[in-house]
Design a protein that fits this description.
alpha+beta; 13 helices; 2 domains; six-stranded antiparallel β-sheet; two-stranded antiparallel ribbon; globular; about 280 residues
Length: about 280
């Protein structure tokens, strides 16, 4: 893992990734301005049948149902009925508990808890972006903060059912759905206009000044955004308006039936350096 410290006031750690774009580039404002489609190597090829079936769906609602059914079958995510438990091993009886949905529920309760560490670890593994914060700033390595993060990101509570592969498919489906939901010419938007509320924005500014309203901030490797400025203002005194590339989006409202994070209209996306317009709420 390499660290970018070329006169940078807030160094970021980088690693290798599975998307074919260097992590240093992926985290840059230049990439955000000129994004390109991303795909986690091997995901669509390993599940080709699923994406062939999705292409045949008449609408996104049908695709949503098909995707959820596929993950339930492949990863055994359906809760066993009482009469089925006797025929299952102890490990299989618990298998359904470790799912992408449970992980998002954990993120919604505390993004700095074990579920948050697993999600940040997945981003680190697939996109090469190491987290900048988990319970505490992750700067110098090794440190107590890094030890806590590394212990939580490999927690057996979430890693007993190929959780990274579940998240790979969730990301691939999200990207497929965003492309499928393009305009009437079939062209998908390259950016989403989103907002983020924060009380620590001063610590995240790496270029420019808040007083000028336009600045560059360095966000964690996975962050939550809101679909509206009003919702974002509930999470901090400062509100940032951001143009987020759609290729960086993992989850958005209404992506899947019964998805968590709906109440706050939350979008989960990859972090990095973003040019923002900031205002004091």
């Amino acid at each position: 893992m390499a660290q970018d410290d070329d006169a940078d006031p807030s160094p970021r750690w980088y690693g290798t990734n599975l998307v074919g774009v260097p992590a240093r580039v992926l985290a840059s404002t230049a990439f955000n301005q000129h994004p390109r489609p991303l795909a986690i190597a091997g995901t669509c090829a390993a599940h080709r049948t699923l994406f062939e079936v999705l292409e045949a769906c008449s609408d996104l609602n049908e695709a949503h149902d098909m995707f959820s059914h596929y993950l339930n079958v492949v990863f055994g995510l359906r809760k066993p009925e009482p009469h089925e438990l006797a025929a299952l091993s102890a490990a299989d009886q618990r298998r359904w508990r470790s799912s992408w949905r449970k992980l998002l529920q954990g993120w919604g309760m505390d993004s700095n808890g074990p579920a948050g560490a697993v999600l940040k670890g997945w981003v680190e593994s697939r996109f090469g972006l190491a987290p900048a914060f988990h319970k505490a700033p992750l700067a110098r390595f090794p440190s107590p903060a890094w030890v806590v993060y590394m212990q939580e990101k490999v927690s057996s509570r979430y890693h007993n059912n190929n959780i990274y592969q579940q998240l790979d498919l969730l990301y691939a489906f999200c990207q497929w759905a965003l492309r499928r939901g393009g305009d009437d010419k079939g062209k998908a938007a390259q950016h989403l206009r989103l907002w983020r509320g924060s009380n620590q924005i001063e610590e995240q500014v790496i270029f420019g000044r808040l007083q000028d309203r336009h600045c560059t901030v360095r966000l964690n490797n996975l962050v939550s955004f809101s679909l509206s400025e009003e919702d974002a203002s509930c999470f901090g005194d400062w509100v940032m308006e951001v143009q987020v590339p759609t290729c960086k989006v993992l989850v958005y409202p209404d992506l899947l039936p019964g998805q968590v994070l709906q109440g706050e209209q939350e979008v989960l996306a990859l972090g990095g350096d973003y040019e923002v317009t900031a205002r004091y709420a």
